[in-house]
Design a protein that fits this description.
The complex is a heterodimer of chains A (262) and B (285).
Chain A (H helix, E strand, L loop, with lengths): L1 H4 L5 E11 L4 E12 L4 E5 L6 H9 L9 E3 L2 E2 L7 E4 L11 H6 L7 H14 L15 H13 L5 E5 L7 H18 L2 E6 L2 H7 L2 E6 L4 E7 L11 H14 L12
Parallel strand pairs in A: 3-8, 3-9, 6-7, 7-8
Antiparallel strand pairs in A: 1-2, 1-4, 4-5, 9-10
Helix pairs in contact in A: 4-5, 7-8
Chain B lengths: L1 H9 L17 H29 L11 H14 L1 H33 L1 H14 L8 H8 L3 H25 L3 H9 L4 H38 L5 H10 L3 H29 L10
Helix pairs in contact in B: 3-11, 4-5, 4-7, 4-9, 4-10, 6-7, 7-9, 9-10, 9-11, 10-11
The chains are: A alpha/beta (262), B mainly alpha (285).
Chain lengths: 262, 285
């Protein structure tokens, strides 16, 4: 297991901005965003919709160019998608005509057959879907399909896993279960995790750090270290203190104090 | 007889029985099947009954529209003499030849045009200009070029079938889900795998629609071509009967064309159902 012992490299983002040009006007989606993320850490990025958090993730993935600011992973400058970064979309994006195994193998190339088989098997086990290799996506529940999507993103052994509201479409119970699963997977794979979410609980429960973004233009408003031991208790006083602190970034105390999803 | 009924009752099929309606007292599953089949066949049966009724009432002249009983007799006679199935076989063979050529060229060209913006630009005007010309309008030229031999008919069938196949294939490829395109970029999937595992399966429903429409047009084209210039085939059978004022045989030919078209469509639908297992079809209210 050479990959596990090799040090995961740090990610240095920006300072970068991103402008979307519309036919008549242009919109500044991100403004002077700078972010250093330590290799192997779990970072949650939270913000209201339209704050550019997904855009930032897509720039890191190489799906979209920034206006010019750099993104570096270790010594390399990121300009296009690469297998050193895995991506989990909000929808599972499984190919409906391929089996679970073939979906996981979709991004694998240049490997001997038995290595491919081993990797599929190992990653099915990692996401808790042993025995589902020959199932089709239509036969899976939403949570199971998202597990396959996570396995597909990890099968190339990326250094960074980018998660774009991956549990946003799941029901509340499945979401909590998947949050625990992703921590277990993180523990095994040791990849850097960057999670974009609008769920305050999720951001605190998962992140070593929570990055709070504000909208129009998207900027980093606050950076919090969540120095709580794991496994974290969502009902503990410390957890609630973090929740309140982040909550105050978006709302005044008087507004719906029990809501925690922006 | 009574033993079979007892068996049905004991196998559980007979345990639940419908309480009312025309199938009262029958097992529920059997009653449902009968009801569905009845609904399916009711309209054609009613039309045939009206047709026969008009004849019995003396409202139509048999020479203009012979009654169903007369058509059935002609059908039996043409079947026994072997003429009907000989002509049908010849027509079918022509359709298969023309359709195979159209499918080959339509699919290859369609995939090429769907994937290449350059090729699309280069061929679009030509395709759009040729597409609206009815295949039948080519018959005069086809006769000059090929005589009344097989070549001309296959050419007409090809022209009729190729455009639905081509256009649907291009459309299907153009409708590739952009989210899957993004996924392929993220995973650095090779172009060959992208085409084989994303583009083509995604386009398959549209391609199958193109093939079904193409086959239907091919079947109509063969009859049209045979009506005008042929010495065999189901279209010739109709034309020949018309010249002898045997309208019952004309109708046998027409009904055979309809039945064959329906059979071909069932065949392609079944192939589609087996190929495209991932799609759930909306079946109406």
């Amino acid at each position: 297991m050479v990959a596990a012992t090799a040090r995961i490299e740090d990610l240095r983002i920006g300072p970068l901005s991103k402008t979307y040009r519309l036919s008549a006007s242009s919109v500044l989606a991100l403004k002077d965003v700078s972010l250093d993320i330590a290799g192997g850490s779990f970072v949650s990025i939270i913000g209201s919709s339209g704050c550019g958090k997904s855009t930032l993730l897509r720039i890191i993935a190489g799906l979209e160019p920034s206006d010019g600011g750099p993104v570096r992973l270790g010594g390399r400058t990121i300009e296009r998608p690469g297998l050193d970064r895995g991506f989990v979309f909000q929808e599972h994006r499984l190919l409906p005509w391929l089996t679970v195994a073939a979906n996981i193998a979709f991004g694998l190339k240049g490997l001997p057959k038995d290595e491919i088989r081993d990797r599929i098997e190992a990653h099915l086990k990692l996401v808790g879907l042993e025995g589902f290799a020959n199932a089709y996506p239509a036969q899976l529940s939403g949570g199971m399909a998202q597990r396959v999507a996570i396995a597909r993103a990890l099968v190339n052994k990326p250094e960074v896993l980018l998660l774009d509201e991956p549990f946003g479409a799941l029901d509340a119970l499945t979401r909590i279960q998947m949050q625990q699963e992703i921590l277990r997977i993180w523990d095994v794979e040791q990849t850097t995790m960057i999670l974009v979410t609008h769920d305050i609980d999720e951001a605190i429960f998962l992140g070593d750090e929570v990055i709070v973004m504000s909208a129009r233009p998207g900027t980093i408003k606050k950076r919090l270290s969540v120095n709580l031991p794991r496994p974290r208790d969502r009902t503990s006083a410390d957890f609630l203190a973090f929740r309140r602190e982040i909550y105050r970034e978006f709302f005044t105390e008087a507004e719906a104090p029990f809501a925690y999803v922006i | 007889m009574s033993e079979t009924l007892d068996l049905a009752a004991r196998t559980g099929l007979g345990t639940a029985r419908t309480e009312g309606g025309p199938f009262r007292g029958l097992p529920i599953r059997l009653a449902a099947t009968l009801r569905r089949t009845g609904l399916y066949l009711a309209l054609p049966l009613v039309l045939i009954a009206i047709w026969q009724g008009l004849f019995e009432a003396g409202l139509i002249r048999p020479i203009l529209l012979p009654p169903p009983t007369k058509v059935a007799q002609a059908f039996v006679a043409l079947t026994l003499s072997g003429d009907l199935f000989r002509h049908l076989g010849i027509s079918l063979l022509r359709v298969l030849e023309g359709f195979a050529i159209a499918a080959g060229i339509g699919l290859v060209l369609g995939v090429g045009i769907g994937l290449s913006r350059q090729l699309d630009r280069a061929t679009d005007l030509t395709i759009q200009l040729l597409k609206p010309i009815p295949p039948i309008a080519w018959i005069p030229l086809a006769i000059l070029w090929f005589g009344i031999g097989e070549g001309g008919k296959i050419y007409i069938i090809f022209l009729g079938a190729v455009f639905p196949i081509l256009v649907n294939t291009i459309d299907g490829i153009r409708q590739t889900d952009h989210r899957h395109v993004e996924l392929a970029r993220i995973l650095e999937v090779s172009r060959a795998r992208f085409i084989a595992q994303v583009v083509l399966p995604g386009a398959l429903p549209a391609i199958m629609t193109g093939l079904r429409v193409g086959l239907m047009v091919a079947w109509m084209c063969v009859v049209a071509a045979e009506l005008i210039a042929a010495s065999s085939g189901i279209g010739y059978l109709i034309m020949d009967a018309r010249q002898l004022a045997q309208t019952d045989q004309v109708l046998v030919g027409m009904i055979t064309i309809g039945a064959m078209g329906k059979l071909l469509d069932i065949l392609l639908k079944e192939i589609e159902r087996r190929l495209i297992t991932w799609k759930t079809v909306y079946s109406g209210l």
